[in-house]
Amino acid sequence: MKFKLPTMPLYIIAALLFGIKTYIVYRFLFNIELENMMQEFILFINPFVSAFLIFAISVWFNKTSRQMKFIRYTALFVTFIVFANLVFYRQFTDFITIPQLFMGSNMSDLGSSIMTLIKPLDILLFVDAAIIWYLSKKQEAELAVEYPKSGKVFALAISLVLLAGNFFLAEMERPQLFTRAFDREYLVKNIGLFNYHVYDLVVHSKTESQRVFADGNELPEIQDFINENIKVVEKSDKFGAAEGKNVIFINAESLQHFVIDNQLHGEAVTPFLNSLVTNEDTYYFDNFYEQTGQGNTSDSEFLVENSLYPLSRGAVFFTHGGNEYHALPEIIEKESYTSAVLHSNNKSFWNREGMYESLGVDHFYGEEAYEVSEENSIGWGLKDKPFFEQSIKYLQSMEQPFYSKFITLTNHFPFEMDEEDTSIDPYNSNSNTLNNYFPAVRYMDEAIEDFFGQLKESGLYEDSMIVIMGDHIGISANHNKAMSMYLDKEEITPYDQVQLQRVPLFIHIPGDGNGEVISDITGQIDMKPTILSLLGIEAEDDIYFGNDVFSEDRKEYIALRNGDFISDEYVSTAGICYNRQTGEPITSETETDTETENQDREANVCSPIEEKVEAELSYSDNLIYGDLFRFINFEEEE
Ligand code: GP9
Ligand code: MN
User: Fewest C-beta in 10 Å: which of 165, 445, 446, 578?
Assistant: First the structure.
């Protein structure tokens, strides 16, 4: 049976169907925040605008069969793009970027995660493509159009006018959208997924060309900025506190601050880590932020080793793995430190092998250095307990002093656990991710406790400083409902979201005795200057954007990769400036005590820091895009 639609060219039918579908996906499957009617309107029109733009190209094909072929393959292709973004979004609450597409090896390794991210009903996304496919085959004669040249130009003109209208509204709603595109959600919300991908492509080519044209003349301006705004002159009183000691750095997968000293079913979630917080040899930082972008663990490693920001698109380990750097392992090598990374995963994951060479890491113990079997693996691979157990022999064989980084794996999304390793019941909410997070975190807590025991047994403990740092969040904003239930809050506001980006930082120096909890605003960007200072190593000519966490004159804010920031007084996110203590947005209507304070509010108290944050992020980007370290000879200067 043939059903008859009102006669309408197929490209228009395809554009309408695709527009409706994309709108539904935007509205209900992505978690896009809409603040006003105008944003609602822009979000509604942009899928139709891009759909028309793409499908209207078909009118330029004269032969009916070619026109039909173009429409059906396009319908399939664009649907696939929506689908791929959706799957990606479920994992990262973010949209795909071009550099990400080239991380094929990682994408395939995502294996176990990906299956949990695809849902049976996703098949509905392909329904309109199937209809178009059917119509394009069965009713091609009726649905094809044959315009004279003027008609074709007209169709093109209409699509461009629609696009211009969309961009105009977008720019009105969010001025400087294209120049300040920190946040991909703004872009998608305003210009749509497809135009966002085109934009991303343009930005990509632009940044790629930066390396070619860079000649080192960019450096003095950057160095001046750093000298004026970042570097501190005075050494902190912890300078040299761990001089000559080994550094054992534990990169704790997905460990967030909110579980520390917190409970579930009336039990502590992390009993061992809690005991470390109050241990007299531990400095615990409870306002320490992760600053990663799309490169997750690798971005956190990048921050730690370089005190540079990762990139806003893609993983810098991949996109700029061949650059020159002046990283921590390289600097401390001059003080006779050997460096090693221990992580039971493919060496190619996140392009680690290539990047570690650029960072000056001496040894990389990857998956093949471990005995990995069915029984001792789960989720992403070797479980943390056997991982630490099997690592001790490598530590013992290393020349001392050493700097060794352990990257754990078990507490990774989707937080799968074997029954025998589970020592706390999962949480009970609508989010399996959050539910399973707790037993996985508890397992990590136990694994780290065991590791401390092994370090003591092996005699390495006394001569080492142990740093434990969460690499990035484990629970994304997609689980906010469950998270608000656990934290006993009505909702998770953008302010809370930023607070949730805190990860634990423990610096444990056996025998130190002065340990305390430090609540200054700190972040991953601070790790390199902090470790250097604790080891008593000066690197005056170094280029970096963080500060020693123990320093008195630290810069007053921590910038997140998306341009948000946290300062002593404020939290700036989603275009809103919050009072950090109260969590209340600061608006010109906010009642204040004095008139000067009121004036301050009106001038937007967050702007001065915002400008610094923007400058800092873009200087860091320029260093990486231009591969500018290749123009400095640190060896000679030091
Ligand atoms: C993989 C491990 C986890 O080797 O670092 O990666 P993540 O997804 O957290 O970046
Ligand atoms: Mn990670």
Answer: 165
